[in-house]
Design a protein that fits this description.
This protein is an alpha/beta fold and 659 residues long. The protein has 28 helices and 10 strands. The strands form 2 sheets. A 6-stranded parallel β-sheet has the order 3-2-1-4-5-6, with helices on both faces. A 4-stranded antiparallel β-sheet has the order 7-10-8-9. α6 packs antiparallel against α8, α8 runs parallel beside α16 and α9 packs antiparallel against α10. It is a multi-pass membrane protein. Belongs to the monovalent cation:proton antiporter 2 (CPA2) transporter (TC 2.A.37) family.
């Protein structure tokens, strides 16, 4: 029996393990390790693998699985929500990059068809590398992360039209008629996938799930993904588009998360083969033959893509800082350019030598992506600090925010994500004045139509905070996902209003110390709050009584936040009265009708004897009575401000609710 294919796979994976482990020590992404593995093992270097055809075939499955999982992870609702970034941002980036590279290519003496094809190759960025790096850095929900995602989605959707135009550029095919026919087929496939997602896929999964067989579930996922990819290939479209459409169909079902977790190991294995196969195609001799040309080519690609993508962000109205970070993040060449380059080689748009130059430059831009992302923040900060604010705030008409807000004692909410939206909604229902600061121009436009007080801009800039009335505000809440931006905003708010109460939402406990050092009053770590919610749900499923659950959660919160507060006290410049009341809290309760406390006087001592809490003040209507007299009687609707320990607060709360 011939086991050459198995031997090749074992050699490749073994070499990949060693290479990736070494590179990870220098914080390079795994994809770079796979590319170098292919380079070393390929026929042009150490020669471990002589025939790369079988590896290339398996690598094609990797591309299919990549698009399949991207489709599962993606949501049509999310696509509609960021459609402006996808269509306008992605469209402008693609057209501008192709045009610029084509112009440079014709100036360099290449025929127009070849120069345009070079633009096709350079315009695409790496979804696999960028999404991995952004997820590791926790930047997927940041404005720059969403901008990059929108552009990447458009690029991934455009790979099929670009593949269709490639033979047309080379003078093959039947021109625009063939493109129109294939486009019509694509539309029919998409419509069919839409109805399949609504009716066929849910029914199929329902039947499979009834069998309670995980093996059958995995088989059904592979069948849907590979089957749809094969069908699209039969009508003249690419396997990749079919896989993406199949993923979208599954993403709308309730089984999408399980499907994604089951298919992910297959995707990672085959994708590693894809990048290894790309590395195997590169001839190392090209690096020594044209070193200066390659260096100039790599720098030109990064510079052109970064500048054009940043310009697109500014056209969309994003602040310069966000546009620059997104532009530098997207400055590499993507994995689908490798697929497209093979097509160009087949149709004569690339010579073997230009193909090798392209491979070398592409791998170099991918390898430099972590460095570009690391430099993006400092470069953006330098540019925004150097240039006038009117240049960096964003060129959208939304940047003209009118007069300074006239509120007093209001709340400034930075970021209108899930946290900011919930806070704004509750404050609105309680008629507490609030001002929202947001960097997404489309969100700003939508909320302004609804009559919301919202400002477009970067809250780390003093002009934006001044416009939001920072000097007259009571609280500023930073509810964004960008840790670096949160620190800048907190520092700027503290500088402009030394006594303002600053609350910051952060993702991880490790991010708390720097925030407290800047003078933040309260930091809410999602990592800790998630653990509390998990505890609540676990105990609830075991039918633990509600009061016991609340006691357990109160204990966790007390221990956890006492530890967090100890961090705060080391850095806080002005902790107020709470800093002198170790273990005590201040809370407010409203007297409900028929509550035990209703009609009771302070002299009666019910509150003190049954809970141990002390009344600091009482609010009745618009009147606030501090340190009320002992003859004061509680009435329905009164709000009492209490000073107590957490245990006393829980006991007091029961007195204000109906028995």
């Amino acid at each position: 029996m011939d086991f050459h294919a198995l031997r090749d796979i074992v050699v490749l994976f073994g070499l990949a393990l060693f290479t990736v482990v070494v590179l990870r020590r220098f914080k390079f992404p795994s994809i770079i390790g796979f590319l170098i593995t292919g380079l070393l093992a390929g026929p042009y270097a150490l020669g471990f693998i002589r025939d790369s055809h079988q590896v290339e075939q398996m690598a094609e499955y990797g591309v299919v699985l990549l698009l399949f999982t991207i489709g599962i992870e993606f949501s049509l609702k999310e696509l509609m929500r960021i459609r402006h970034l996808v269509l306008l941002g992605g469209g402008l980036q693609l057209v501008l990059t192709i045009s610029a590279v084509a112009a440079l290519g014709t100036v360099g003496g290449f025929p127009l068809s070849q120069a345009v094809f070079f633009g096709f190759l350079v315009a695409l960025s790496s979804t696999a590398i960028l999404m991995k790096l952004m997820m590791d850095a926790g930047e997927m929900d940041t404005p720059q992360g969403k901008a990059a995602l929108g552009i990447l989605i458009f690029q991934d959707l455009c790979i099929v039209p670009l593949m269709l135009f490639t033979p047309f550029l080379a003078g093959g095919g039947q021109g625009l008629v063939e493109i129109a026919i294939v486009s019509a087929k694509a539309g029919a496939v998409i419509v069919g996938a839409h109805y399949g997602a609504r009716f066929v896929v849910p029914w199929l999964f329902e039947q499979v799930v009834k069998t309670r067989s995980r093996e059958l579930f995995v088989l059904s996922i592979i069948f849907i993904g590979m089957g749809t990819a094969w069908l699209t290939a039969q009508v003249g479209l690419s396997l990749a588009l079919g896989a993406f459409i199949a993923g979208l169909a599954i993403s709308e079902s309730e089984y999408s998360h399980q499907a994604l977790s089951d298919i992910m190991p297959f995707r990672e294995a085959f994708m590693s083969l894809f990048f290894i196969s790309v590395g195997m195609l590169l001839k190392p001799a090209i690096l020594f033959k044209f070193p200066l040309l390659l260096l100039g080519l790599v720098l030109s690609i990064i510079l052109v893509k970064a500048l054009l993508t940043s310009a697109v962000g500014l056209v969309l109205g994003l602040p310069m800082r966000i546009a620059l970070i997104a532009g530098l993040s997207l400055a590499q060449i993507g994995e689908f350019s490798f697929v497209l380059s093979r097509s160009g080689l087949k149709y004569g748009l690339l010579t073997p030598e230009t193909y090798q130059l392209f491979l070398a430059a592409s791998i170099a831009t991918m390898a430099l992506t972590p460095l570009c992302m690391k430099l993006a923040g400092p470069v953006a900060d330098f540019m925004t600090a150097t240039l006038p604010h009117s240049w960096t705030r964003g060129r959208s008409s939304l940047a003209q925010n009118g007069e300074k807000v006239g509120y007093q004692d209001h709340v400034i909410i930075v970021g209108y994500g899930v946290n900011g939206k919930n806070l704004a909604r509750i404050l609105k229902s309680l008629e507490i004045p609030r001002v929202i600061v947001e960097t997404n121009p489309f969100t700003v436009r939508s909320l302004r139509r609804e009559g919301e007080e919202i400002i477009f801009g970067d809250a780390s800039k003093p002009e934006i905070l001044e416009h939001a009335g920072i000097r007259d505000a009571r609280i500023v809440v930073v509810a964004i996902s960008d840790a670096a931006a949160s620190r800048r905003i907190a520092a700027q708010a503290r500088k402009m209003h030394p006594s303002i109460h600053v609350i910051v939402r952060t993702r991880y406990l490790l991010e708390m110390e720097p925030l407290f050092r800047l003078g933040v009053n309260e930091v809410i770590p999602e990592e800790f709050e998630t653990s509390v919610e998990i505890l609540f749900r676990v105990l609830k499923r075991f039918l633990i009584p509600q009061d016991v659950i609340e006691e357990c959660i109160a204990d966790v919160r007390r221990d956890g936040y006492e530890m967090l507060r100890s961090v705060s006290k080391r850095h806080s410049h002005a902790v107020g009265i709470a800093g002198f009341l170790s273990g005590a809290e201040i809370g407010s309760f409203r007297v409900r009708k028929n509550a035990p406390i209703e009609g009771e006087s302070l002299r009666g001592g019910m509150l003190r004897s049954r809970s141990g809490a002390t009344v600091v003040a009482i609010k009745r209507g618009d009147e606030i009575i501090a340190n009320p007299d002992p003859v004061w009687e509680f009435k329905d609707g009164d709000t009492a401000l209490l000073l107590a320990t957490p245990e006393q607060m829980r006991a007091a709360a029961k007195l204000f609710e109906p028995a």
